[in-house]
Predict the 3D structure of the following.
Amino acid sequence: MPDEWFVRVDGKEYGPVDIKTLREWRAEGRLIPGNELRKTDETDWRDAAQFVEIFAEPRIPDAATNELFRRRTVFEIVRDSFGIYARGFLSFFCLALIAAVPSLVVKLALAFFNTPARENVNVQAMLPAACAMISFIALLLTWPVFLAGVQFATSDIVGGRAVSFRDVLQRAVNIWRRMATLSAVVYGSYIFWTVPLLVILSITRAEPSAILLLLTLLALAVQVYMVGRLFINFLFWQQSAAISGLDGVTALQESKELARSRREAPMFERPIFRGALLASLWLLVFLTLSVAIELPFLLIRIQGITSIEEATALVQKLVNAPAPDATTIATYVLNSLVHALLRPLLGISFVLLYFDAKARR
């Protein structure tokens, strides 16, 4: 009789199931190395990763065997990020579109929305607001899938495995709850430390004074400090959750420990500074391309304007327009397309940085 196993996840037991079912669960992302297994004729639970008959990787060339946890320089991380992106471009771009489309719809819907007078409230007037709300909810639902998908696709390519968008998407959906919970914690922490500054800025704007200005500068300094600490602590939360299969506090703890590792090493060999450098380079490219997209449309708009009064009138016209014109819509669409193309690159580079940090640990 073939061996059968019980699976324990969060204290709940499932089974008994055979090895074929376990391998299917593993492929679907339902069984991860951190889950516990035991054979039906045993009493001790062990991590699923210890069962090589279930978690044995497909045979790949020797050159790729040690590719996963390998040390890389910053240049190699950037170079390999582009190479990985090129190899799995279709999968990465489709993953990016999952989040980019709802984001674009939110922008367009809000651009078409104008707060109606109370007596003019009707279904047609509120349709853009409803569309924006639905799209925003869709964005919240799809964002964790996009994040997890980039991690899985990158690790597959680095490990020498073929990437299938359908397979990556299925695995990402299977860990949606874990990624969504951690997303709420991570992004919520950033928002929490931004709100006080916004409140103080609004007060200062209403009643400017030397004391309030000093308070604003102090709040800004505290926010910069806290955002820096959050960036360090959350540096690898996506990789810990998706690739290592860690949940909640465990994922955040590994992220913090990896980010703060190698303190005795030279500056640009530490994960903290490498992460900051990679994020800065990506942001620089992002802003440069955004300006490059906006500039031609801006030049078209200001063609023929010869005075400040004419420029002011143009701005007022755009602000008070009941709906965006074709130029504005084209700008939104192109910006969203460029953002969708760039987003996976940052995720890929951080996966490689994660592997590098694990290799150097």
The beta strands are 4-9, 12-18, 36-39, 46-47.
